Amino acid sequence: MLPLIGIFGANASGKSNVLAALVDMRSAVINSYARWASYDGIPRSVFALDPTRESEPSFFEVDLVMDGVRWTYGFELSRTRVEAEWLHS
User: Fold this and answer.
1) What angle do CA 6, 9, 12 make, to 5 degrees?
2) CA 74 to CA 15: how far, in whole Å?
3) Using alpha carbons only, what angle is made at residue 82 by residues 77 and 83, rounded to the nearest 5 degrees?
4) What is the band of 1 on the pLDDT scale with cuts at 50, 70, 90?
5) CA pair distance 55, 33, nearest whole angstrom
6) Which residues form the ATPase AAA-type core domain (predicted)?
7) Rg of the chain over CA atoms, in angstroms?
8) Which residues contact 29 (CB under 8 A, 6 or more apart)?
């Protein structure tokens, strides 16, 4: 049996935003500072309708199970640096 994942929800409920956040998280992990050096700070997509969000860190976290062990990996990004990073099993 192959692993399968699905995202279900009503129209305009945020499914595309969840996928976009996962793409951003993947990019941060794979490319990080190598690509960010060409930007003025860390490129982030913050919630446009709340101007206070620009000054708050962006939070990313995933839980996954590999070889029967549950792992939690996450990090927080501000406009200029990685504020925190963690990995727990």
Assistant:
1) 125
2) 20
3) 85
4) low
5) 20
6) 5-87
7) 15
8) none
Predicted confidence (pLDDT) per residue in 25-84, tens digit: 998 898 876 777 777 778 887 888 888 888 899 999 999 999 999 999 999 998 888 899
CB atoms within 10 A of CB 3: 4
CB 60 within 8 A of CB 77: yes
Cβ atoms 60, 75 nearer than 8 A: yes
Residues 49, 24: Cα–Cα separation, whole Å: 20
**What type of residue is 40?**
D
pTM of the model: 0.79
Record the tokens describing residue 41, joined without a space: 């700070």
Place of tokens 């060409």: 38
